[in-house]
Amino acid sequence: MTRTVPVSCPMDCFDLCRFLVTVSDNRIMDIKGDPAHPLTRGIICSKGRDLIQRHSHPERLQHPMVRKKSGFVRTTYNEVLDLVAATLTSVHARWGPAGVLNYTSDGYGGAKNRVQSIFFNCLGGDTRFTGSLCWGAGMAAQTFDFGDVRGHLPEDILNSDLVIVWGRNPKATSLHFYSLLKQAEKNNTRIVVIDPIQSDTAKSLGTHVALKPGTDAALALSMAHVTVTENRYDRSFVQDHILGFDRFCQYLDRFDPETASRITGVSPDTIRKLAREYAAAKAPGIWMGYGMQRYASGGNTVRSIDALAAVCGHVGKPGTGANYAARSLAPLLNRPEKNSKAHVTASRTFPAPMLGFLQAMNQSHCRHDTLPRQSIKTADLNAGSPQFSLLYRVVFDHFMTDTARHANLVYKPAVFEQG
Ligand code: SF4
What we know:
The protein is an alpha/beta fold and 419 residues long.
């Protein structure tokens, strides 16, 4: 029987396209974008379309696998549930809930994304990491600066008279955002792309400003320097909303355009012109990528760009903002997880980049302040490839990856909800 099933794209992507998937005898025959989706309007990217190949890939696991002395053998979901339940029960009895390491990462970003955390919360807790290896420094930066990470909706760029695409290549990574940029350019919105390389986006849109990798903060601070020294900043916004403005101005003394030019490789004239243009624009929006915060002091790079937007008063109005991540819906989507924390009786956390230390902690007496010494006895390794000497390892994956090969049990999840 052939039927069409509406599902969300499971990729870790902001666009969260809705698909209409044609299924026949449990085989996916076709994946199309849903034309009724308000943002993506039926257009999906090749990563979404290629999920059909992932689903029917000959090496994709077809069954859960359990490790025996002879190697991995096929098992049943009932046996998986029994094994995991028995292991969790024995770990809890001996070490408590925090004896379980719940190591997961992102994928599908909808309401069910946190179901694993809800499960462990309801079981009393676990050991899990805080922060992120991907966008964490920028998230922390914006939380410091604005109290939260609330990007504007992508469509808001149609309210901008200037858009700065900073360290981001939406032509390759976000086709729906790129379409909006094209539409904005057609409406006479000026587009500036700041990127060390001439990306596909930089080739196709507006003006490209090339800077040396890792020098974005110096460029932002120099633009702020020009804005302040030429008296182009927004006095009333500064007075009402900025803490530490005088100290910030003292710090800016080090970033006159000539000095910043030596750091960034951008000419002093270009820095001045860009700063004046940004300060004078009525509704300029900055849209950042993640690469710039994956350097030492990367969080401060995002903070420098936030500060530039703030001194110009380009925050909190349509078309503006220092947009880094779209987390406006997160409080709503994360509510079930938050509520489930009421069941937690024991939990431990460690910063995500410290994961490698867990191995050392299990085998030595290495200590980390946020993680009391206690053996981790069961690992739920849903992403990454740590190779711990643990008692029992459970991996969820579509393929027998390097990480999965180290597991005791490999659970085959669905590509989509239906299979
Ligand atoms: S743009 Fe591509 S990867 Fe992103 S949600 Fe849509 S189909 Fe999935």
